[in-house]
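Researcher: Structure prediction, please.
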Amino acid sequence: MLERIKINNDFINQVNNLCNEKDLIKLLEIINNLHHADVAEILEKTNIENAKFIYNNIQQGKNALVLIEIDNDLRKSILLSLSAKDIADKIIVHLESDDAVNIINELSNKKKYLVLSKIKNKDLAYDISDLLNYEQNTAGSLMAKELIKVNQNWNTLKCLKEMRKQADGIKQVHTIYVVNDNNKLIGLLSLRKLLLTSNDISIKEIVKKNIISVSAYERKENIANIMNKYDLVVIPVVDKHNKLIGRITIDDVLSVVKEEAEKDYQLASGISEDVEINDNILDITRARLPWLIIGMFGGILSAKIIGIFDLENNFELTFFIPLIAAMGGNVGIQSSAIVVQSIANRSFGNESILEKLFKELRVALLNGLICSLIILLSTYLLGYNPALSATVSISLLSVIIFAALFGAFIPLSLKKIKIDPALATGPFITTINDVLGLLIYFMFGQKIL
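Model: Predicted structure follows.
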């Protein structure tokens, strides 16, 4: 039975000491009794030399599962140290086709073809080659070829015999698919119903035809929404002729959801590329710098706007610059975040863009009236000039309405032209609203004061 342990600093130090002493016997006593996910965590927390030493001594089969779990940089480093033959014989043969494709995609084009040529199981090599042809953002790039399928014309006895043959090469059976003579997907077969049905009954009489499937060219993000909507743990993949070609499991979809969430969070934080804390300084700088420069130019533009207006005679206007800028940025981010979230989970329904903007206008108007009345009362009680209080109050209402509409309009427009709406959250909205918010504020100040 595999042990479940707490991997803390003391445990990692113990592993490092065993690696440094090259005490392979004690090291393997620990590693062989752990789940492959725990081994992957250990490799990520130790240094690269010890990680490679441990990995090279993990038993075959388990080493392939560990390789799937570890982070990209460590996986690439380990793969670089392995020959094409070792990758084919010691890793690929122990993986299902979808995981094998993920590993091969980490390799250079030259090594990729070398590995494929070294795979002795020609059916597996063909399946992997076929999966490599699908674009990265499609269902085809997620699916695995391993599945159990039965013909609708078989009786239950033949069905059980054929299932035993197919199951021999499959690590995990998720469901049983029913196809016709042309391999077109007909439905699902309940294992319980199969076991309770007499041997001479045809499969077509007990098949469940109400089945959800997806095209091999469906976008990965849509797969996650479909599986979530219909509460599925596995979904069949078909070609344009409705022929069964693979299946996608919930663990593959969870990986997509995680990747998309990380990508959207980074975009919202002003990071233009997928980076992690362990990446080198130049990669992290390249990912962060573009939006910092955009924000800097936004600040310069804001300073220019402030310089245009006469503040010598109305210096009290400067007291509320942080308030106007902060409220505009916050409202814009709130509005864009709600819209981006709704786009992601498809909760907008059939509303048009104008209907969505009108709804956002009503929300902004209500919030703006409440906030502007609060600031009007606060500035009056604090003894500010009534004209200044009115200026700040009216400006705040206008800025909130504009920021909300702008925050909703930008992600909707980006979606329309097929650009990731998450780009509209974070620094982009904040910078634009800061600049335009100050412009609105000083224009009202010039008119009223």
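Model: Residues 386-416 form the longest helix (31 residues).
Researcher: Thanks, that helps.
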